[in-house]
Amino acid sequence: MIRRRLGILSACAALLAAAAGCGAGAPTAGSSSGASAAPPADATSSATPSAGSAAVTEWLARGGCRTVEASIPAPPTVQSASDANGPTVLTVTGQLRTDAVQPLLLDMATLDAMPQVECSVDDRQAEGRQVVFRGVLLSTLLSSIGARPSAALHTAALNDYAVDLPLSDIADLPVLLATRMDGQPMSVAHYGPLRVVYPTTGYDLDPTIYGPRWIWQLSTIDVA
Description:
The protein has 224 residues and is α+β, with helices and mostly antiparallel strands. The chain has one domain: Sulfite Oxidase, Chain A, domain 2. It has helices at residues 10-14, 54-62, 108-113, 138-144, 167-172, 207-210, and strands at 65-68, 88-94, 104-107, 116-123, 129-137, 152-157, 162-166, 176-181, 184-185, 195-197, 218-223. The protein is globular.
């Protein structure tokens, strides 16, 4: 299997504050299934604010999030398949740009180079306390890899747990692909190395609907 380390879109790399705005053009599907505060997904403009606008900070803050500096410099271009990579932490398949090599195998350094966001959430499911997660917004990830979703993200964990994430979630909410918790990498034994994290403040999210979407030990995403 060919490993391909991806660069960041120039629009995202220009400003760290654009982390939320990278997903502004992402397609949406249906309503936000309980996110009563969010506008309809088929509105003329996405709920995700425009990159560089003051609304970015407000939109993130509403969910307890803020932009932070990337852990490592963003690579200037898409790297060739022959470039050395670290261990694969995420495999992506499905509706990607036509020139994409599939599956796309992403290492932690690639994710760390993307615009970073921190979110303070009430992780009652796993930690039972307030936790600060850090990582990349799923909307930014999709834009960075040239994903072309039309319905949902089919996600699966190392333990074979699987759940679909509607595109309306990705467009309307600051949904985080977390790589660190309280500043530290997460081991497999501690629900890592990747977790999907939803905001627990600012949005009226029904835990019976959104709780199962907090997938731990995320390993694969199939873009549908």
